[in-house]
Records
---
Amino acid sequence: MKKRLPPTPTQQEVSLSDDEFIVSKTDGEGKITYINRVFMQTSGYTEAELLDQNHRMIRHPDMPHGLFQHMWNTLKNGNEFIGFVKNLCKNGGHYWVFAHVTPDHDAQGSFRGYYSVRRKPEKNAITTIAHLYDAMNQVEQNNGGRSAASASAQHMLEYIADKELSYDEFILQLDSH
Ligand SMILES: Cc1cc2nc3c(=O)[nH]c(=O)nc-3n(C[C@H](O)[C@H](O)[C@H](O)COP(=O)(O)O)c2cc1C
């Protein structure tokens, strides 16, 4: 299949309404197996375009790789991840979400993939987090290569540790203002 070029970002923002939730499920490798209607409406992609793809298809270039490295480390350790994510729409616009991602198990407790629910974030949180992500992107540019994501994830965790907070505490505190 021909590889599609990612859309060019327009910095045009689309906002979720207070009662909308974007839901998706993936297999163990992160390949999308389910999306709800709000996911399609917000991103502008059809079900056929999204199923079997990795969520990286909607990754916005302003998002640091280090954040996703931290997300995957958290999930691989069997823990739930929360965080603020800027996603890219098919038309180049974007939408910010407060995301909750969790490993998904069947009734017998066997791992079967991942599950994510996202809602509209607190507006004030975005200013702070976008600042932190800019700094992480700068760290990635300065490092380059394989160590870039680890270096920016470390930058984020040190920035948060300086506030004497855990990552989750920092995120929840930002979202509560
Ligand atoms: C359940 C689940 C939901 C995800 N949701 C998003 C998302 O909304 N946006 C995004 O850019 N990446 C999301 N990811 C992470 C992507 O799989 C990918 O790691 C990320 O886009 C960064 O790409 P990279 O791993 O090449 O750095 C999700 C992963 C999982 C398992």
Note: The first helix runs from residue 37 to 43.
---
Amino acid sequence: MRFKSVVGSRWSVVGDWWSTSLDALVDFVYPPGCHVCARSLDHAASVICVACAAQVHPIPSPYCERCSTPLDGEDAVCRVCAGRSFSFVRARAAVTFDETVQTMIHLLKYRGRRALGRFLGRVLAEAAVREDWFREVDLLVPVPLHRSRARERGYNQSELLARGVADRADLPLATRLLTRHQSTRSQTTLTPAERAANVRGAFRVIAPHTVAGTRIALVDDVFTTGATFDSCAHALLDGGAAAVYALAVARA
Ligand SMILES: [Zn+2]
Ligand SMILES: [Zn+2]
């Protein structure tokens, strides 16, 4: 696995076709194990092992119907959602942001483990499908990366997640409908207010004819403050969308 991780660190600076070729080559040289811990897999088609899968925990019920935060009492929404409004109708996250999930998302975003994208997208869709969450959704839209970051990474992890969701939810996916025209700072060290300011106005609809009257579910990796989803939803509603929903793998 050492060779693979060395190659993985180079994926951030090489193009799409090249990293795909490397992936195929390395998997041929070293049969793939669990994408998280490298243990051998019982089924060749698996992405993570049984032990790692046991560390992925669904968000326990009850949870806030607007942002998926677990709740103690009988309120329908959490304190944060009671005190603010979002441009999206509601957000559903599937799993808690525990160590294994954090590792998976890190590997997906920064170590080129693309297989984890489609896998986590299916995990996310599975939770939502069971609740008939998609009944008001016409179209899936991944949260876009700025083109400089997409070029650097070689892919958009949210698009990979959305493909996994599309597989399971049987919905169309639009990847060239919304664009991130401002290159924003990483949100990880920012306060909630700074996060909102950082992404405000960062997104723009580039295919208004597709957006008009459409009910859209945005897809991203982690729901933290909801600022990125909110900014995307604002742009889509401005562009004529009928309603916007939000889907994230994990609730931080
Ligand atoms: Zn494992
Ligand atoms: Zn909430």
Note: The chain is about 40% helix and 15% strand.
